[in-house]
Amino acid sequence: MTIKTLPHDPYITAVVDALTEAGLEPTSAETSDAESNRYDASGLTTQLDALLVWDADTLGLNTVVHEDGIALIWEHPAEQWQWAPRKHHGELQWEPEFLPLHRWADPAAVVAVVRILLAGLGLTGGEDPRLWVNFIAVSEAVAAWEAQE
């Protein structure tokens, strides 16, 4: 995680903790508020984000499908989690694709989706309706951060 505390850190920490408890700990996990907001055409604002990476050595990774690992991306103001497979040197193979996970998805729902992605299987069905139990407080903190931008 970042050195300074960011409004979305408690949620990302809860997700990483759930992944770790499920035996799916990411190789790396970081949060930031320094990236340009790619949803703002002016390019003058930053966004909150998180990047969770599973590299090629990840136990359970289907390397036939995802030879160099995968990345999971959380961005505010995006309403859903995103993902993409990685290339050899860590960059993404393609623009991240939206996942059927709400921005504040219950960490258990994130675990289920990561398990499917690591296995190299396709995702089916609609968005998982489960939300993180503490999402209201963190959502309000993110809104306060955004108001200061």
- Radius of gyration, whole Å: 15 Å
Gap between N and C termini: 21 Å
Q: What is the residue-averaged pLDDT?
A: 90
User: How many helices in DSSP terms?
Assistant: 3
In which order are the strands of the major sheet placed? 1-2-3-4-5
Let me know the number of strands. 5
* Beta-strand share of residues: 15-25%
Envelope shape: globular
Report the biggest beta sheet as strand number plus sense, adding barrel if it closes: 5 strands, antiparallel
Order of helices and strands: HEEEEEHH
Secondary structure: helix percent: 25-40%
Low-confidence stretches: none
Q: In terms of structural class, how would the helical and strand content be classed?
A: alpha+beta
Quick take:
It is built from 3 helices and 5 strands, in the order αβββββαα. The chain has 149 residues and is of the alpha+beta class.
Give an overview of the whole structure.
This protein has 149 residues and is an alpha+beta fold. It contains three helices and five strands; from the N terminus they run H-E-E-E-E-E-H-H. The protein has helices spanning 9-21, 107-118, 135-148, and strands at residues 28-36, 46-54, 70-76, 80-85, 97-102. It has a five-stranded antiparallel sheet with strand order 1-2-3-4-5, covered by helices on one side. The longest helix is centred in the last third of the chain and has 14 residues, at 135-148.
